[in-house]
Amino acid sequence: MGSKNCPESPRQKMINMMYLVLTAMLALNVAAEVLDAFKVVDFSLLQTVKTLDIKNDQIYSSFEQAFVENPTKVEEWKIKADEVRQKTDSLKSYISQLKEELVRVSGSELINQENPLTSEDFYVVTEKGDTLKIKKEDDLNSPSELMVTQKRAEELKGKIIEFKNELITFISEDDVELKETILRELETPDPPANLKEGTESKSWEIQYFLDKPLVAVLTLLTKMEIDVKNSEANLINYLYAQIDAGSFKFNKLGARVIANSNLILQGDEYFAEVFLAAEDTTEQPEIFINNRPVEVNNGKAIYRVKANEAGNFSWGGLIKYKTPAGIVKNYEFEQPYQVTKPSVTMSATQMNVFYRGLDNPFDIGGGGIPKENLEVRMTNGTVIESGDSYLIRPDELDELGRRTTVSVYANVGGESRLVDTTPWRVKKVPDPVAQVAGQSGGAIPKERLLIEDGVMAVLEDFDFNFKYTVTEFTLEATGQGGYTNPWNAVTNRFTNDQKDQIRRLNPGNSVFITNIKAVGDDGVETNLDPIIFKLR
């Protein structure tokens, strides 16, 4: 919405232009003709004020009538319109009192039967209805003293700024055009400095009220009244249009059911809202569920039933709605739902136990509950989501499964419900077996042993991606005479000295690999059993 709600008439534009021309002429000379012209402009402006008052009163009357017909829909906007009227009347009253005070200070006569008004007189009508005849139309001192020296113009400017800032709070962020119209119409900017003349910047107060004749100041104040009433008109037209702005235009009605969930756990409550789509909440329909009338609030009814048994169920009903033409139409509806027992299946996808220090893959099945509605929690560890599955990271060993439980919760109807809890054991990753050439001991050809690179730590029958690395070992060999020589390695590879020692051996000699140490992926060091080979 913008200024198109109350556009400026050509006549009003002409009056505004005349005021500007006359103001410019004042800078040259305050001639009698100029003063008379101001009288004409002021009279025309006063007529415009009366016209705007009538138009605005008609809009307020429309608010009153609409409120009587539909208070629920209109109340919000009528309250805002009443606030706009109060704020406008307050500012207009202030301007009117200011005009009266200017006239009284400058000198005036009360018009009555003994002192009638002539066609040549310039006058002001007060808020109380008194008519004051102006004695000194060309008075330059009184307006300057009251408005500038006593700072009444500064007070007026503050009230105008406050007024326009309050008005735009009633306008939504989307209606930029209307906001700009009101801000522009109630502008009070200081004029720019005339650098060519070397003058200092003037204030808005000095520009319009210092050394201006009384007739010009009164005309200016009347013009401000018009600006205030125009802004009021724009805003109340906008507010009146908002009464139906939020109303939907539709050509089809239909019954709608919104349930808390179509999947209910046994023992829970099935909950659903039944309403007529696009229905005006100020007109209540009749709703029947399973052939029984139910209470309707804000156009909605609620259906509740205890889900005591598992299975597939359905329910339905009828909505009766009276159209604006007075014809009652029926809208049927039916809604299915499923009740399932609260159960889940939990499984560790690699083993039936958890291993400390590992990411144990874990999966669950919700027994009809979508996975996105399930949550896994555990004691003695951490649960991490990994795609559609989970990873379990236990903290401490729990061989008997007394301190480690995994619980599954389901989000049902917006609430977290415990579905199942099971105990689990936490074991240490088994120790590896030291091997050379795939053997942990026994007879081995000398040539086979010589071509091997070193000692491996092997986890037998363990499906996890976890490995050990041999970090050191000692090789001893029994030669002729029964003596043994130890040779150390600080990696898992045979050293050159160890290889030379093996080359000197003969079939029947023994090779001992001892002091084997290995470190797992978790950083824990383990001592492995020795390997004893007999060469052949």
Helices and strands, with pairings:
Elements: H1 10-26, H2 32-69, H3 71-106, E1 108-110, E2 123-125, E3 131-134, H4 141-149, H5 152-167, H6 176-185, H7 204-209, H8 214-245, E4 254-259, E5 263-265, E6 269-277, E7 286-289, E8 292-293, E9 300-306, E10 311-322, E11 328-340, E12 345-348, E13 354-355, E14 360-365, E15 374-378, E16 381-386, E17 389-394, E18 405-412, E19 415-423, E20 426-427, E21 433-435, E22 442-444, H9 446-451, E23 456-458, E24 468-478, E25 484-489, H10 496-503, E26 510-520, E27 525-528, E28 531-535
Parallel strand pairs: 5-11, 13-20, 22-28
Antiparallel strand pairs: 1-3, 2-3, 4-6, 6-9, 7-8, 7-10, 10-11, 12-14, 14-17, 15-18, 16-17, 18-19, 21-23, 24-25, 24-26, 26-27, 26-28
Helix pairs in contact: 1-2, 1-8, 2-3, 2-8, 3-5, 3-8, 6-8
Q: Would you mind describing this structure in some detail?
A:
The chain is built from 10 helices and 28 strands. The strands form 8 sheets. Strands 22, 24, 25, 26, 27 and 28 form a 6-stranded mixed sheet that branches. It has a 5-stranded mixed sheet with strand order 5-11-10-7-8, with no helix packed on it. 25% of the residues are buried. It folds into 4 domains: 3-245, no CATH class; 254-340, Immunoglobulin-like; 345-427, Immunoglobulin-like (Sandwich); 433-535, no CATH class. Helix content is 33%, strand content 30%. It is an alpha+beta fold and 536 residues long.
